[in-house]
Structures are given as structure tokens and as C-alpha cells.
Design goal:
Helix content is about 35%, strand content about 25%. With about 260 residues, the chain is of the alpha/beta class. About 0% of the residues have low confidence.
Length: about 260
């Protein structure tokens, strides 16, 4: 199966294409240029793999959580390609991709517990914990979705640190993701937390995304119609938050009185 994966959840923008077991990948640090960088990355991986878009069998896209604009670009592109090429789409969590990247980067310790942390900006993070168990989830590592404990709301760094303290009470925890990099000063001194791979696995990788998607498809995961893919924003857009913060405070009308 030839799978094309799109990654835009963080500052890293890219695509990967899996064909005959080989992965072609292109990624760039996009900043705010997700829309400008994603299409060229798709063209590059198609050229590298000798595959045309018409030959792709399935699409995968990181649906978040992550940067609001980045997710909109990735999901909109997946929707457009899916509808144009009549392809199904598999949505994958950015936190699952980070955890899978951690297990790939530390294959000798696939039984480790992992906390994946995405920088949500505004002094918050998105996070989930993963525990593969004693057997490490098999030769390819666990499917993160099978061993995940999610924290669906954005967390302040202090809340993240307290949660990691609770997790580390049961043994060492490997912490990865750009959120861990940003708040390393709060996390690194805490006993039981290993941030040695935080910078190596700082962003969801397109290559990890396409491998994880292919594993799930091979295990029978269903593809969705392109129109049904929904981003996991987890909070309003920054523009809406800014507008609400700047809006004048509304005061209740005075109670009915004697007209004075």
C-alpha cells in the first residue's frame, strides 16, 4: 500500500510517502509558513519515491492537537486531496506520533513510560502519557493509541510537572516533545523524568506518522471519508481568544427603579 502522510501540527511542516516498505520524507521548520511549505514537500516526496498522486492508495494526516493554523492547513489539504483523488483518510493524533517516535528512538526501552508534550503556546501544553507494559508492545513497539492516558484540556507547565511527578512515582518516565523542550527548566530537575530525547523527538515526524498510519491500516483501522476528518484543536483559535480578551467588559443593565 502506498500511503501519503501530511504533518503540520507544530512548527515542523512536511510529508512522507511509504511505498514498498520504503519511506521518502521531506520536512521544513515552517514557523507560520505551513501553507507555503506543505505542497512543495508533497511534490518532493512523490518525486523521491517515483510515485504520482494518482498512484497513492491512502492518506494520513496529523489532526492535532497543535498549532491552530498548522492543523487547518494540514487537514484542509488532506480533505482536498482525498476528495480530488477519491481516497480515504486516516487521522492520527500528534501526541501518538510523538510517542511512536520516542519508542522508535529508544528501541531498547520500549517498555518505558512516555509523556508526549506539545507546546500549545500561551503558556500551556497538550499532553498524554503512554505505558507499553512489561512486554514493550511487541517487536515494533506499542501502538500508542492502545496504551494512552490522555489529558484532553490544555495544561499550565505547573500542572504538567505535577502530573509527571505522579507518573514518575511508579518508575522512570521518558518525556518528549517541543513542550518539554520549552519548559525543560521546570521538568528537568524533577526525579524520575528523563528528558534526554526531548530535543531529538521534539516534533511529530512525517516518517513516523506514515509508518504508524501504515501499521494501523494493516491492522484493520478504517479509513474515513475526507469530508469527515476533523482537527483536534482543543481550544479556540488565538484570534478569537485575543478578541475576547480585548472586548470591553459588559455590565448588567441597572435594575428597574424610580427613574432617578
Amino acid at each position: 500500500m502506498r500511503v501519503l502522510a501530511l504533518e503540520t501540527a507544530t512548527d515542523l511542516v512536511g510529508a512522507a510517502l511509504l511505498r514498498d516498505g520504503a519511506v521518502s520524507e521531506r520536512s521544513h521548520l515552517g514557523g507560520r509558513a505551513h501553507a507555503e511549505l506543505l505542497a512543495p514537500a508533497v511534490e518532493e516526496v512523490c518525486a523521491l519515491s517515483g510515485t504520482t498522486l494518482a498512484e497513492v492508495d491512502a492518506l494520513a494526516v496529523d489532526v492535532g492537537p497543535g498549532l491552530f493554523t498548522g492543523l487547518r492547513v494540514g487537514v484542509a489539504t488532506a480533505k482536498a486531496l482525498g476528495q480530488a483523488l477519491d481516497l480515504g483518510v486516516l487521522g492520527v493524533s500528534s501526541l501518538d506520533v510523538l510517542a511512536a517516535g520516542a519508542y522508535e528512538a529508544a528501541p531498547a526501552d520500549r517498555s518505558a513510560r512516555v509523556v508526549a508534550v506539545i507546546d500549545a503556546r500561551r503558556g500551556e501544553v497538550f499532553a498524554a502519557a503512554y505505558d507499553a507494559g512489561a512486554d514493550g508492545g511487541g517487536p515494533d513497539g506499542p501502538d500508542p493509541a492502545d496504551v494512552r492516558t490522555d489529558r484532553p484540556a490544555a495544561l499550565a507547565p505547573e500542572e504538567l510537572a505535577a502530573w509527571c511527578d505522579e507518573l514518575a512515582a511508579g518508575g522512570p518516565v521518558l518525556v518528549v516533545g517541543d513542550g518539554a523542550v520549552r519548559y525543560v527548566e521546570q521538568l528537568a530537575p524533577r526525579p524520575g523524568l528523563d528528558l534526554g530525547l526531548a530535543e531529538t523527538v521534539a516534533a511529530p515526524s512525517p516518517a513516523v506518522l506514515v509508518r504508524l498510519a501504515a501499521r494501523r491500516l494493516a491492522a484493520g483501522a478504517p479509513l474515513q471519508a475526507a469530508t469527515d476528518i476533523v482537527p483536534d484543536y482543543r481550544r479556540p483559535a488565538d484570534a478569537k481568544i485575543n478578541w475576547e480578551e480585548r472586548a470591553p467588559q459588559r455590565t448588567a443593565p441597572p435594575p428597574p427603579g424610580d427613574g432617578r
